[in-house]
């Protein structure tokens, strides 16, 4: 760690002698099932940005006939002039309304959560599909919710087939975090995977916010029961480092410096993630988070009955502590929470979202529930 802190290497050119070992014992140790390779990055936006670049390169490489096919002089000349053809093509990344994938240029074009993120910044002409608008309680709206999900999937397929800039990948969050903690069913995501496979489009799962245990699984997409894994899974936040996992060898850049920057990650942060993984395993924190989440959800259900309207659309059952609810006086609710010592945040238009640490236990849930009850009482 001392060496990594005082002598940060340019990983693409001069990786430390033990870099492969650090990756195997850390980041790759918890790779999602079916994804055995990783490209390291510096932040969540960076992870998504490089994942998009990998998707574009993969698509064009296939169209040329494989990694061995050389670029033509015309392609190289047009690329230097920012001309679309022949050195590039009007391709796109399809994202979802109210999704959030970062604030860099490529990732920002797929971010659709708040205007403040996007104002004044030129954006790519990329498509957005509707994320299913789920109604709660789930057991009272089964038919409506299934219809909403099927309609969303139909829209996705229509955009893949007909959008003027062909999507080469679909990017989706397991739970739309910034956009209001919006959920969809495992069946929806299985359907999305089937559509991407049918049309030869990559599926990128953005686990920057949902990854590393908070949903009661190490990776949130493990809840879906996919027959085949996503093509790419991006990560950051709780991992303290960042990057994207992938399985296809064809997603590796076929020439030096195609997918490159000075740092390409940070060994010190990768070592931190290795230590985090070891603590998660030692204390069995993912399983404990699932258990604590169930306990916390039941407590919130009780509060929703006691204070009608203040804990609306309670969601995240069975998803660890990744829980949220809506409050019509959300901003005031958050201020009152801070007055009683609870640092809690909102997302979307009216959502209050919970993001406790993995070491959050039932005794901490009791403290939180008591504070929330006090706040709800003030707003009656």
TrEMBL record:
It is an enzyme of class 2 (transferase). One of its GO terms (cellular component) is mitochondrion. Pfam families: Aminotran_3 (PF00202). One of its GO terms (biological process) is gamma-aminobutyric acid catabolic process. Its cofactor is pyridoxal 5'-phosphate. It catalyses: 4-aminobutanoate + 2-oxoglutarate = succinate semialdehyde + L-glutamate. Belongs to the class-III pyridoxal-phosphate-dependent aminotransferase family. NCBIfam families: GABAtrns_euk. This is 4-aminobutyrate aminotransferase. It comes from Podospora fimiseda.
